[in-house]
Design a protein that fits this description.
Helix content: 40-55%
Radius of gyration: 18 Å
CATH class: Alpha Beta
Bound molecules: nicotinamide-adenine-dinucleotide
Strand order of the largest sheet: 3-2-1-4-5-6-7
Number of helices: 8
Number of domains: 1
Largest sheet: 7 strands, parallel
Distance between the termini: 40 Å
CATH superfamily: NAD(P)-binding Rossmann-like Domain
Shape: globular
Length: about 250
């Protein structure tokens, strides 16, 4: 997708993989709207990145707030790129240590943020893109974020793995659905990336995680996610596919 005279929107753009993607888009001269929670560092990040970055606070499950963010994006230029990174983990066991059944509300909340929120952002962004004039035969491109947990969920990750498998499942059908509108959809499935999600762990745990990656035996760098997202945007033949970005790791049960 040619991003000349176009804008982009990045959810989860205040931190980690989303922040690296916002930075890469701004470096390329693309006006980029960061969507993240009101409690996030989105406003500070946008200010630091300069005039091309804007922050529009929204929970990805909130249709009105996401639509307001899309208004901000389209006020700069037609929206032609979505990179949806917002998400969170959370531990749920099927049977707790005390013998009680697993937490139903937390299961639903994590699926709601990671899966239903993805559908919400994708449908609203695609509706905006569908109104664009095609450039080089394309109206827009959407990059979603899954996880290797979609295939190898670890014990305790049942809501997260269910949601990310849902993102993988929606990728091809979304690409098929939006093909008539000339909008592409791909997902990236990161392995273990060095973002604030991991910052709470000790160096020892982080080194242990890095050692599990066959090659390169280190954590992924957020810039590597961002450059892959930009490649998906650039490469018109990438569509309907989920790309693992994981140094060949296959997660163990725990
Ligand atoms: N870091 C990894 O190793 C890794 C691996 C696999 C998948 N992922 C996925 O990559 C994405 C980005 O993760 P990250 O590591 O950059 O994490 P991160 O915590 O650094 O960033 C996630 C951002 O999403 C925002 N967010 C959370 N819930 C939201 C909501 N309901 N509405 C709007 N914004 C919300 C957070 O405020 C945060 O800024 C997530 O979807 C995550 O599941 C990360």
């Amino acid at each position: 997708m040619n991003l000349d005279n176009a804008s982009a929107l990045v959810t989860g753009g205040a931190s980690g993989l989303g922040l690296a993607t916002v930075t890469a888009l701004v470096d390329r001269g693309v006006p980029t709207t960061i969507v993240d929670l009101p409690s996030s560092a989105g406003a500070e990040v946008a200010e630091k990145l300069g005039d091309l970055a804007s922050f529009s606070p929204a929970d990805v499950r909130d249709a009105d707030a996401v639509d307001a963010a899309l208004d901000v994006a389209t006020s700069k230029a037609p929206l032609r790129a979505l990179v949806h990174c917002a998400g969170r983990g959370g531990t749920v066991r099927l049977v707790n240590k005390d013998g009680s059944a697993g937490d139903y509300d937390l299961y639903k909340e994590i699926v709601d943020i990671n899966l239903v929120g993805t559908f919400n952002v994708l449908r609203l962004a695609a509706a905006r893109m569908a109104a664009n004039e095609p450039v080089d035969g394309e109206r827009g491109v959407c990059v979603l974020t899954a996880s290797v947990a979609a295939w190898e969920g670890q014990i305790g990750q049942i809501p997260y793995a269910s949601a990310k498998a849902g993102v993988v499942g929606m990728t091809l059908v979304a690409a098929r659905d939006l093909s008539r509108a000339k909008i592409r959809v791909c997902s990236l499935a990161p392995g273990i990336f060095d973002t604030p999600i991991l910052a709470r762990f000790s160096d020892e745990i982080r080194d242990g995680l890095a050692a599990q990656v066959p090659h390169p035996a280190r954590l992924g760098r957020p810039e590597e996610f961002a450059s892959t997202a930009l490649h998906v945007i650039d490469n018109a033949m990438l569509n309907g596919e989920t790309i693992r970005l994981d140094g060949a790791i296959r997660m163990s049960p725990r």
